[in-house]
């Protein structure tokens, strides 16, 4: 039996974080066994393999949710790098990781007296209008809200690694009131070529801060406490909406409050000489979870 360590990623000062079961020596595990581990714990799970010699990378990571393999998982990547660093397995503070969605660069910022802060790279975001804008009312009903709860902005499909449908909500109170209908969300995501609905609203009185919730298409649970690649997609969506300016100042995205797991996700743009994003970095803090045993209940 492989050793599984559970890491809580994107922890905030209030606690929270999204648990990620991690296996740092996954050699010999097949897809069925990795899916079974994710199902037993009820979370996105990360698995570490040696990188292929031709890639020149340091590691290969694979990611599974209770129902299937994922091409990329931001919080599981960050949690895995944090675990490797914490256990003294890393030779450098920068490493290259092969994933199904492409190669990711990770950076460990380890300042004396402070917990390690891990960032990973993501490519420039792709933003598109919905292919079926007539589904707007159905989307609003599927998340348990009314039209007056939604900002007068279009819904967008945004992606750095996987497509998320961005849904602008007026206030944190209305955001917290959303109640997802998972079956309807799955059907709508299929129609929209999306992997989940990412609701967001401005965080009151705080520039470049936003509250969010993620309702996945079909992962085996109704909601995520923190979703790194959805946050990167949102950051590029915010630029498209004109809600933020292009800057190296991080965007702070709060997620998980409605689940009782308040989490903080930091996104900063990688800008070229014309101040145009050529990608971004998503980062956060991690810690070992108190509960290291399989439960399958933490998403609740």
Distinctive features:
300 residues; alpha+beta; Diaminopimelate Epimerase, Chain A, domain 1; 2 domains; 16 strands; 33% strand; disordered C terminus; Phenazine biosynthesis protein PhzF family
Describe this protein's structure.
This protein has helices spanning 31-41, 74-86, 136-142, 172-177, 182-192, 228-241, and strands at residues 5-9, 18-23, 45-50, 59-64, 69-70, 94-99, 102-109, 117-123, 126-129, 156-159, 164-168, 196-202, 209-216, 251-255, 263-271, 277-288. With 300 residues, it is α+β, with helices and mostly antiparallel strands. The protein folds into two domains: 5-122, Roll (Diaminopimelate Epimerase, Chain A, domain 1), CATH 3.10.310.10; 126-283, Diaminopimelate Epimerase, Chain A, domain 1 (Roll), CATH 3.10.310.10. An eight-stranded mixed beta barrel has the order 1-2-3-4-6-7-8-16. It is globular, with a radius of gyration of 18 Å. The two termini are 27 Å apart.
């Amino acid at each position: 039996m492989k050793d599984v360590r559970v890491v809580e990623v994107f922890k905030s000062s209030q606690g929270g974080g999204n648990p990620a079961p991690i296996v740092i020596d996954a050699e010999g595990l097949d897809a069925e066994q990795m899916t079974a581990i994710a199902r037993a714990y009820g979370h996105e799970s990360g698995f570490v393999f040696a990188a292929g010699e031709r890639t020149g990378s340091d590691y290969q990571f694979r990611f599974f949710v209770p129902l299937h393999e994922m091409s990329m998982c931001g919080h599981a990547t960050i949690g895995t790098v944090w675990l490797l660093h914490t256990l003294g397995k890393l030779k450098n503070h920068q490493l290259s990781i092969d994933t199904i969605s492409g190669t990711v660069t990770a950076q460990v910022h380890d300042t004396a007296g402070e917990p390690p802060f891990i960032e990973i790279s993501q490519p420039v975001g792709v933003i598109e209008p919905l292919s079926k804008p007539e589904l707007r009312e159905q989307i609003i009903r599927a998340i348990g809200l009314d039209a007056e709860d939604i900002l007068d902005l279009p819904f967008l499909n945004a992606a750095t690694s996987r497509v998320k449908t961005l849904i602008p909500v007026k206030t944190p109170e209305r955001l917290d009131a959303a109640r997802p209908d998972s079956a309807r969300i799955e059907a709508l995501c299929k129609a929209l070529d999306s992997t989940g609905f990412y609701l967001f609203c401005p965080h009151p009185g705080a520039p470049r801060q936003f509250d969010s919730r993620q309702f996945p298409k079909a992962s085996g649970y109704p909601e995520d406490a923190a979703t790194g690649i959805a946050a990167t997609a949102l950051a590029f969506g915010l630029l498209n909406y004109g809600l933020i300016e292009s800057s190296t100042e991080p965007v702070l995205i709060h997620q998980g409050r409605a689940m009782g797991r308040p989490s903080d996700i930091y996104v900063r743009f990688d800008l070229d000489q014309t101040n145009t994003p050529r990608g971004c970095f998503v980062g956060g803090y991690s810690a070992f979870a108190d509960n290291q045993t399989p439960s399958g209940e933490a998403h609740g």
